Amino acid sequence: MELYLDSVDFKEVEEAMKLGIVAGLTTTPTFMARQGITDIDGAIVKLSKMVPVLQIEALGNTPDEIVAEADRQIALGLDPKKTVFKVPVSMTGIQACKKLRDKGYMVNVHLVYTLNQAYLAMEAGATYVCPLAGRMQDNGIDAITLFGQILDLVGRFGYESKIMFSSVRHSEHVRNALELGVHTCTVPWGVMKKLADNHLTAAGTSQFVADTRLMTERVSELLTETATVSSESTLTEALVKMTESGLGAVPVVDKAGVLVGVFTDGDLRRKIKEKGNEVITAKMGDFEYKKPVTITSGALLYDAVKLFKEHQIDTIIVAQDGKIEGMIDIQDFVKAGLIG
Fold it and tell me: 179-221: per-residue pLDDT in tens?
């Protein structure tokens, strides 16, 4: 199934063409008016250079006027092999379609709402026959059934016309087009750019990215440098260091600079509950500490996650050869999507 973009927004056209799979562009005078385009010929020429195939309106009150308008637009420098003229279905439009096709021009007979209209368009040799699904459904017409009937005519009588599914409102319409087996579907950019969206795909991709990071990136990439406090420092001094680092913990070292433990905001809450406000005047050496969990900056993030889970802790000291380089915080891993 050919995929067309339905738009005249130059930025949308540029984005859609980057996909490399869009077969062409359909336009309407209504789109032009909404975009505030006053130089229609200039816009048509510009668009023709941006897309593989451009479908544009050829209007007139008589068949000859419609043909003359098509000739005029070709004279702007358009390539007849890459230009399709859109003609609204009517007896005038059917005659114009036949004349245009006899001249070798490609034609899209559109605004089709009935099987009879589609039949006439195919008899006139229309390159494309284009019912408007969304607009039909807005008016209580069974668009899906009509498309099926038109496709049946193509198969039964061997018409060469391509059936185009247009007036697409949502991704379900694209699925309808695929299930019906239409030849072409023209889609607004707002719908097209969401066709690949799926929450399970997004979740799986995120998991793959996270797992790859865990197995390839090092602790140093999530390391936060932090100052230490000595066992002689007061709790107040320790709280200042914690605030400055933005972490909920601070390493505590002895007089020789050897790591003796980590004081956390959780420890603070527990000490206040045990001893009240007087704990604020205590020194860091007055507290007991568990053996600190450490990791090297060159270790994989995967190893850090294992330590977080194994020891049920929120911070890990990063040290190399006895020298403290900083800390890693579990919240940084959560924000990066590395821990659920």
Answer: 999 999 999 999 999 999 999 999 999 999 999 999 999 999 9
The pLDDT confidence band at residue 44, using thresholds 50, 70 and 90, is very high
* pLDDT at 226 exceeding the cut of 90: no
The verdict on 308 and 187 lying in the same domain is no
Question: Does one domain contain both 152 and 22?
Answer: yes
Q: Number of structural domains, the chain?
A: 2
For residue 243, count other CB atoms closer than 10 A to its CB: 10
* pTM listed for this prediction: 0.78
Catalytic residues: 86
Range of the domain at 262: 202-335
Q: What is the mean pLDDT of residues 90-95?
A: 98
Domain assignment present for residue 340? The answer is no
38 and 143 together in one domain: yes
